[in-house]
Design goal:
Layout (H helix, E strand, L loop, with lengths): L1 H25 L3 H26 L3 H32 L40 E6 L5 H15 L2 E9 H4 L10 H32 L5 E7 L1 H8 L4 E5 L16 H7 L15 E4 L1
Helix pairs in contact: 1-2, 2-3, 4-6
Keywords: Membrane, Transmembrane, Transmembrane helix
Protein name: Monovalent cation/H(+) antiporter subunit G
GO molecular function: sodium:proton antiporter activity
Length: 286
């Protein structure tokens, strides 16, 4: 009987540890993976210890197992909480499908992707603008942003560049993938990326038509990847960045609507105007 109980507890504990290991490998963000690892530490190891106690039943063994389990119950939840809090405050990204951040406004978040010493951007117009970079994101406010970029380029006799980006970092984050679901997840990523490319092409076409109608010379650059990193690389002295206020480079395909101003502010790219003024574009001076 003792051997059977020992086997049951050992198999159950090993099964929980296996499931937790799969969770650490497959879950989409830091907090979910940490949750899986914590469950393995408490429940999985606890069941394994009980199985060992049934295999070698003696008062001394049960006392040792009880002490170990109490130690796990006291330390693992606290350690998990502290690690989660540290990750959240450091700015570790949440899963793209997160619908509600209950700690928003309660804890100040940092910027995990960029060092804390990142140089802040100027919020006032400089004496000279050498280049105007227009972010081509399809959606509400694109036409207003195009008009603003054309006016800045004409007024300051600056070079005009249309920067078209596909936010693959967001579009490829399709959430937790069940075992055997990699093929369908890859299909979904490819479908979203293809749709974003088509919408991006429409935005580029609108920009080109407006620039030609205004008789302003321009260039177009196409990128795929993390828009924040791409935009940050563009911001050099004499460069002005213009973005639609209500459109991001997911081109409206992400599950949750992205606020461009909030996304830029999180990464210390400060617009000239922080307040929302209808469809007025976001302008960043370097």
């Amino acid at each position: 009987m003792m051997a059977l109980l020992s086997a049951l507890f050992l198999v159950a504990g090993a099964g929980l540890c296996l499931i937790a290991a799969v969770g650490v490998l497959r879950l989409p963000d830091y907090f979910m993976r940490m949750h899986a690892a914590t469950k393995a530490g408490v429940a999985g190891c606890g069941l394994l210890l009980i199985g060992v106690a049934f295999a070698e039943p003696s008062p001394g063994m049960w006392i040792k197992v009880a002490i170990a389990i109490v130690f796990l119950l006291l330390t693992q939840p606290i350690a998990g909480h502290l690690l989660a809090r540290a990750g959240y405050v450091a700015g570790v990204p949440l899963w793209g499908g997160t619908s509600d951040d209950q700690l928003k406004g309660e804890l100040r978040r940092g910027d995990f992707d960029q060092p804390a010493t990142a140089r802040p951007r100027r919020t006032k117009m400089q004496k000279g603008i050498d280049q105007v970079v227009l972010g081509l994101a399809s959606g509400r406010g694109l036409e207003t942003a195009i008009a603003e970029a054309l006016e800045l380029a004409r007024t300051h006799k600056a070079d005009l560049v249309g920067l078209a980006i596909v936010d693959t970092k967001t579009l490829h984050n399709v959430g937790p993938v069940p075992l055997g679901g990699n093929h369908y997840a890859a299909q979904l990523r490819n479908t979203l990326t293809t749709k974003a490319r088509h919408r991006m092409a429409e935005a580029v076409q609108s920009f080109e038509q407006a620039a030609r109608a205004a008789n302003i010379r321009f260039a177009v650059s196409v990128e795929e990847g993390d828009p924040v990193a791409i935009l940050r690389a563009q911001l050099d002295r004499g460069v002005t960045l213009v973005l639609p206020r209500h459109a991001w480079f997911d081109h409206g395909l992400a599950e949750k609507q992205i606020d461009p101003a909030a996304r830029l502010a999180r990464h210390r790219i400060t617009p000239a105007e922080a307040s929302d003024k209808g469809d007025a574009p976001i302008v960043v001076f370097s």
